[in-house]
From TrEMBL:
Protein name (Swiss-Prot/TrEMBL): P-type Ca(2+) transporter
Protein source organism: Clostridium pasteurianum DSM 525 = ATCC 6013
NCBIfam families per UniProt: ATPase-IIB_Ca, ATPase_P-type
Xref: SMART domains: Cation_ATPase_N
Xref: PROSITE patterns: ATPASE_E1_E2 (PS00154)
Length: 848
C-alpha cells in the first residue's frame, strides 16, 4: 500500500534498493543469447570444411601425418578468426539492444528523475505524457486528458480514456500514451505485468538481414558452385595426368576452402557492426542494421528546426502588449501582469522544490521554461505566484493544435488561459484587452497584432500568443472560444554553431538539407537563411499552402522547397512520400508521437534521443543521442565510409581468391606440375584472407567521401567498375604466379623451390594489392600507409608468417618449401609488384 508521502515525494533510494531485491528488475525475460562456444562450433558447420577435414584425416592415415596435422591446425586457426569476427558482431548487437532500452520519468527522493525503465519498482510514482510507452503496470493517481493505445494487449487500436476513477485507472506496460499527461503508481513490474504474462511480445531491435548481406549470400552461392566446378576440373585433370588421386582430391578441396569466400557475409556484418559502434561514439545510435547501408545513399535530410538545427535554449527577447513592444529589461513592469499570468499559469514546466535558483528549479520544455524565466528571478517568488490559483483542468500543448489551455480557479472565479501560435490564438479571439478595457477585436486591431507578429518573426523570434476568457460558464468545450486577446511573447532560439558547416558539407556531398518546422514562415526563413539552408523566401512553403497542392502539384513544386514552415506532424508523412516518389532517399527526424508515421515511412527514420518519445524511437532506425543535425551528417558520412570499406574488402577478397583459382586452373590447363600444394593453398588463405581483410573493414575515411554524389540505392555492390577490377586483377595475379613458377622451372630450380617462389609471389601480390584496395581512385603512392595501422600490422604478421614458413627448417619440412636466395626473391618481388606498379602509373597519369 502506498502512503501519502510516497505520492508526493516518491520512494527513497533505500526503499528502491530493497524493492529491487524483492521484485527484481523491471524486464521481460530476454531470449537466450548465443553462447561463445556455439559461435565457435558454428565455424565448422560448413560442408566444404568437413570434406577437407575428412580428406585430411584420410591422407593422414595414408602416411602424410605432418600434412594432416598442419591442415587441421590451419582450419582451427581460420575458425578462430571467424569466431572473433562473429563474436564481436554478437556482442555489439547485444550492446545495441541494451542501449536502446526505454527510460521512465519517476518521482524519487522528492525529485523528478529520468531513470532506466528496468529500475522501476512497485510503489514508484511515474509521470506519463503523450508519446511515452508505459514502462510498467500502474494505477493512475492524477490525469489530464490521458488516452492510451492498448492495442498491444487488446488488439483494439482505439485510444482508451484513462482517469483516476476506479473504473478506468489501470494502465499497462507496453501501451502508448496518445494524449495528455498524468501520474501513476506502479503496481507490477517485469514478468508480473500483464505484458510479462504474454512474454513473447518483447519488443526487440530488428535483426533484419541487410540487403547487402542478402545479395552477398546469393552471390556466395553462385561462387560456391563455380569454385567447386573449377576444383573438380583441376582435380580431374591432375588425375588424368596420372598424379596421386588422394593428393589431387586434397588439392581440389583445399582450393575450394581457400577460394570460396564463405566469410564474406560475416565480414560485412562485422564492418556494419564496427561502423555502428563508431557511429555511437559520434552520438548516433543505430537501431536497425540495414539503415547503415541506406545512410550512405541519403539524398535528402529533412530535419526539425527546434533543438536539431537550433540550440533549443529559448530566451524571451520581446513582448507585445497593449499595442507596445517591450524588451528584455522591462518584463517585470507591473503593466505586464496579465501576460505574466497567462504565460505562468498556462504552463507545463515542472518545479524542483529543493532548488532556490530558478534556472535549476525549472524543468520541462524550453519554450515553457523560457516564458517563466522571463518574469521570475527566484523559485520562491514563482511558488508564491503559483499558490494563488488552483488548476482545474488542462488541454495540453500538441503540435497539431499548436496551442494549450488551462481552466483555473482564481479566488473562486473560473478563468481560462490560452497560449499558442499567434494565428491560432487570433482566430479564437473575439475581443482584445486594450487600454484597460475589453474591446471588440476588429480587423484594424488584428492587423496591428499581425504586424507585431511579423516584426518578431523577421527577427527570427519564435512567437507565442496569449489570451484568456473569464466570462460566462467556462467548460472544457468552450475554454478556447470567444477569447480576449492579450499579447505576444517572442523568443530567440539561436542556431547551433556547428550546423552551418554541416549544411555546407551536405551540399558538397550532393545532399539537400530541408528544414521542417511548426514555426512561423518568417521565423523559419530567417533561421534558414542564417544557416544557408535557403536564400529566398520563395523556397519556403507553409502547411496551409501544402494543403492546397494536390499530389501532382506537390511533386512539381517539391524540388524547389528548402523549408516547410507552420506544418503539423501529419504533413511530414506527405513530404516524405513526395520526396520518395521523386526517387530520393529521405532521412526524416521526429520527436513527438505524431511524427512516428513519417519517421517509419522515411528511408532513414531518425528520432531524438533527448526530446524524442518512446513511440517515435521505436519507429526509427536511428536515434540521435544529442538531437543535433550535425550528428545526422556524420552518420551519413559514416554510412558512406562503411559502404566503401565493404567494397574495399570485397574487391580484395574476391580478386585474391580468383587469383588462387586462376593459378591452379591455368597450371592444370597448361599441364604443368601443380604450382602449389594443398597445404600451401591453405597457408595462402590463412595469411591473406583473415586479418588483412578485417583490417580493411576499419579503414579510415577516404578524404573524398563527402565530395561525391550519393550513390543509387539499387546500385550493385560491383558497380562503378568494381567487377572489372576484380576480374582483371584476379586473372593477373593468377598469371603472374604461374609465370613466377615457370621462371623457377626455367632457371632450373627444384620443384620445391619453384613452388616456394610461386607461394611467395601469390602471397606478396595479395599483400601489395590490399593497400591498393584502400582507394578506388588514388594510386598506392598517394595513400598514406600508416593511416590504417591495423592493416600494416596485419600485413606484417602475414609477411612474418611467410618468412617463417620459408626459412625455419621445421616449417619448411611441413610446408614443403625451400629457403630462397636474393635472386629468387627478386623474381617473387618482380611478379608480385609489376601489376601494382603498372596500375599505379596508369592511375597517376590518368589523373594528371
Ligand atoms: P520544430 O518542428 O522545428 O520542432 P517547433 O518546435 O517550432 O518546430 P511546434 O513545437 O509544433 O514546432 O510549435 C509550433 C508553434 O506552436 C510555435 O511556433 C509556437 O507558436 C507554438 N508553441 C510551441 N510550443 C508551445 C507551447 N508549449 N505552448 C503554446 N504554444 C506553443
Amino acid at each position: 500500500m502506498i502512503n501519502e508521502k510516497e505520492i508526493y515525494n516518491g520512494l527513497r533510494s533505500k526503499e528502491v534498493e530493497d524493492r529491487l531485491k524483492k521484485y527484481g528488475l523491471n524486464i521481460l525475460e530476454k531470449k537466450k543469447t548465443i553462447s561463445a562456444f556455439s559461435i565457435f562450433l558454428s565455424q565448422f558447420n560448413d560442408f566444404i570444411t568437413w570434406v577437407l577435414i575428412g580428406a585430411t584425416v584420410i591422407s593422414g592415415i595414408m602416411g602424410e601425418k605432418a600434412d594432416a596435422i598442419t591442415i587441421i591446425v590451419i582450419i582451427v586457426m581460420n575458425a578462430i578468426l571467424g569466431f572473433i569476427q562473429e563474436f564481436r558482431t554478437e556482442k555489439s548487437l547485444e550492446a545495441l539492444k541494451n542501449m536502446a532500452s526505454p527510460t521512465a520519468k519517476v518521482m524519487r527522493d522528492g525529485d523528478i528523475q529520468v531513470i532506466n525503465a528496468e529500475n522501476l519498482v512497485p510503489g514508484d510514482l511515474i509521470i506519463i505524457e503523450s508519446g511515452d510507452r508505459i514502462p510498467a503496470d500502474a494505477i493512475i493517481v492524477q490525469a489530464s486528458n490521458v488516452k492510451v493505445d492498448e492495442s498491444l494487449l487488446t488488439g483494439e487500436s482505439i485510444g482508451v480514456e484513462k482517469t483516476d476513477s476506479n473504473e478506468n485507472n489501470n494502465i499497462y506496460m507496453g501501451s502508448i500514451v496518445l494524449t495528455g499527461k498524468g501520474e501513476a503508481r506502479v503496481i507490477e513490474t517485469g514478468m508480473n505485468t500483464e505484458m510479462g504474462k504474454i512474454a513473447n511480445l518483447l519488443q526487440n531491435i530488428d535483426e533484419d538481414k541487410t540487403p547487402l548481406k542478402e545479395k552477398l549470400s546469393s552471390l556466395g552461392k553462385v561462387l560456391v558452385v563455380l569454385c567447386i566446378a573449377i576444383c573438380i576440373i583441376v582435380t580431374a585433370l591432375g588425375i588424368i595426368r596420372g598424379q596421386d588421386k588422394y593428393q589431387m582430391f586434397l588439392l581440389g578441396v583445399s582450393l575450394a576452402v581457400a577460394a570460396i569466400p564463405e566469410g564474406l557475409p560475416a565480414i560485412v556484418t562485422v564492418a556494419l557492426a564496427l561502423g555502428v559502434s563508431r557511429m555511437l561514439k559520434r552520438n548516433s545510435l543505430i537501431r536497425k542494421l540495414p539503415a547503415v547501408e541506406t545512410l550512405g545513399c541519403t539524398s535528402i535530410i529533412c530535419s526539425d528546426k527546434t533543438g536539431t538545427l537550433t540550440q533549443n535554449m529559448m530566451t524571451v527577447k520581446s513582448m507585445y502588449y497593449n499595442g507596445k513592444m517591450y524588451s528584455e529589461n522591462s518584463f517585470n513592469e507591473r503593466v505586464l501582469t496579465p501576460l505574466k499570468k497567462v504565460f505562468t499559469y498556462c504552463n507545463d514546466s515542472d518545479l524542483n522544490n529543493k532548488e532556490k535558483d530558478i534556472s535549476k528549479a525549472l524543468m520541462g520544455d524550453p519554450t515553457e521554461t523560457a516564458l517563466i524565466k522571463a518574469f521570475f528571478s527566484s523559485a520562491d517568488e514563482l511558488k508564491r505566484f503559483l499558490n494563488k490559483v488552483n488548476r482545474i483542468s488542462e488541454i495540453p500543448f500538441d503540435s497539431n493544435r499548436k496551442m494549450m489551455s488551462v481552466i483555473l480557479n482564481d479566488r473562486g472565479n473560473k478563468i481560462s488561459y490560452v497560449k499558442g501560435a499567434p494565428e491560432r490564438i487570433i482566430e479564437r479571439c473575439k475581443y482584445i484587452f486594450i487600454d484597460g478595457e475589453v474591446k471588440l477585436f476588429t480587423n484594424s486591431y488584428k492587423s496591428k497584432v499581425q504586424a507585431a507578429v511579423d516584426t518578431m518573426a523577421n527577427r527570427a523570434l519564435r512567437c507565442i500568443g496569449a489570451a484568456y476568457k473569464d466570462k460566462g460558464i467556462i467548460t472544457q468545450n468552450n475554454q478556447e472560444k470567444d477569447l480576449v486577446f492579450l499579447g505576444l511573447a517572442g523568443m530567440i532560439d539561436p542556431p547551433r554553431q556547428e550546423v552551418k558547416p554541416a549544411v555546407l558539407k551536405c551540399k558538397e556531398a550532393g545532399i539537400k538539407p530541408i528544414m521542417i518546422t511548426g514555426d512561423h514562415k518568417n521565423t523559419a526563413f530567417a533561421i534558414g537563411k542564417e544557416l544557408d539552408i535557403c536564400s529566398h523566401i520563395s523556397e519556403v512553403i507553409t502547411g496551409e499552402e501544402l494543403d492546397r497542392l494536390n499530389d501532382k502539384k506537390l511533386a512539381e513544386a517539391i524540388n524547389k522547397v528548402k523549408i516547410f514552415a507552420r506544418v503539423s506532424p501529419e504533413h511530414k508523412l506527405r513530404i516524405v512520400k513526395a520526396f520518395k516518389k521523386k526517387n530520393k532517399i529521405v532521412a526524416m527526424t521526429g520527436d513527438g508521437v505524431n511524427d512516428a508515421p513519417a519517421v517509419k515511412e522515411a528511408d532513414i527514420g531518425i528520432s531524438m534521443g533527448i526530446s524524442g518519445t518512446d513511440v517515435t524511437k521505436e519507429a526509427s532506425s536511428m536515434i540521435l543521442l544529442d538531437d543535433n543535425f550535425t550528428t545526422i551528417v556524420s552518420a551519413v558520412e559514416e554510412g558512406r565510409v562503411i559502404y566503401n570499406n565493404i567494397r574495399k574488402f570485397i574487391r580484395y577478397l574476391l580478386s585474391c581468391n580468383l587469383g588462387e583459382v586462376i593459378t591452379m586452373f591455368l597450371a592444370s590447363l597448361l599441364y604443368l606440375d601443380t604450382p602449389l600444394l594443398p597445404i600451401q593453398i591453405l597457408l595462402v588463405n590463412l595469411a591473406t584472407d583473415g586479418l588483412p581483410a578485417i583490417a580493411l573493414g576499419v579503414d579510415p575515411p577516404d578524404k573524398d567521401v563527402m565530395y561525391e554524389m550519393p550513390r543509387d540505392k539499387n546500385e550493385s555492390i560491383f558497380a562503378r567498375g568494381l567487377k572489372e577490377k576484380i576480374i582483371i586483377r584476379g586473372s593477373l595475379i593468377g598469371v603472374c604466379t604461374v609465370l613466377a613458377f615457370l621462371s623457377g622451372r626455367f632457371f632450373h630450380m627444384s620443384l620445391e623451390t619453384s613452388r616456394t617462389v610461386a607461394l611467395g609471389t601469390l602471397i606478396m601480390s595479395q599483400l601489395i594489392h590490399v593497400f591498393e584496395c584502400r582507394s578506388e581512385k588514388h594510386s598506392i603512392f598517394e595513400i598514406k600507409l600508416f593511416t590504417n595501422i591495423y592493416l600494416v600490422g596485419a600485413v606484417a604478421i602475414s609477411i612474418i608468417m611467410l618468412i617463417v614458413v620459408i626459412y625455419v627448417p621445421f616449417f619448411g619440412t611441413i610446408f614443403h618449401t625451400n629457403p630462397l636466395n636474393i635472386g629468387q626473391w627478386l623474381i617473387v618481388m618482380f611478379f608480385s609488384g609489376i601489376i601494382a606498379m603498372i596500375n599505379s602509373l596508369y592511375l597517376f597519369f590518368n589523373k594528371n
